[in-house]
Design goal:
Elements lengths: L2 H22 L3 E3 L12 H17 L7 H21 L2 E3 L1 E3 L4 E3 L1 H16 L5
Antiparallel strand pairs: 1-2, 3-4
Helix pairs in contact: 1-3, 2-3, 3-4
């Protein structure tokens, strides 16, 4: 299964889980972007940031070497954009005790994209 399909599956699982855990009251609302960055910004400004980011990452998909990284970043951004439009914020339902922070599967996909991008920038030995 390619990362694009895996990312799509993550979105199809993550978005319903965000609604479900929000309904149960388990987790925290994230009014910022991934991992709570830029919290406190107007919802529509954050939506605009997500859209610009998704479109920018989508244009970078033509760079073959970094295609997996950009796919993960765009799909993770999309996975957080959908609940933001319906709920006014992203719901983080996974708690990472050693770091003391909350996240969701879309945040994890964004992190995978960042790691893949950084890895693709390392010159061959």
């Amino acid at each position: 299964m390619s990362l694009s399909w895996l990312g799509l599956v993550v979105i199809l699982v993550d978005v319903p889980l965000q609604f479900y855990f929000r309904f149960l009251g388990r987790g925290v609302e994230n009014s910022g972007v991934s991992f709570g960055w830029l919290a406190g910004l107007n919802t529509w400004l954050v939506v605009l940031i997500y859209l610009i980011f998704i479109l920018w990452a989508g244009r970078k998909l033509s760079q073959r070497k970094k295609q997996l990284a950009w796919s993960a970043l765009a799909l993770g951004g999309l996975g957080n954009l959908i609940p933001r439009l319906w709920l006014g914020g992203v719901w983080d339902y996974i708690y990472f005790a050693p770091g003391g922070f909350w996240f969701n599967l879309s945040d994890a996909l964004i992190t995978v994209g960042v790691v893949l991008y950084m890895w693709s920038e390392i010159p061959p030995a």
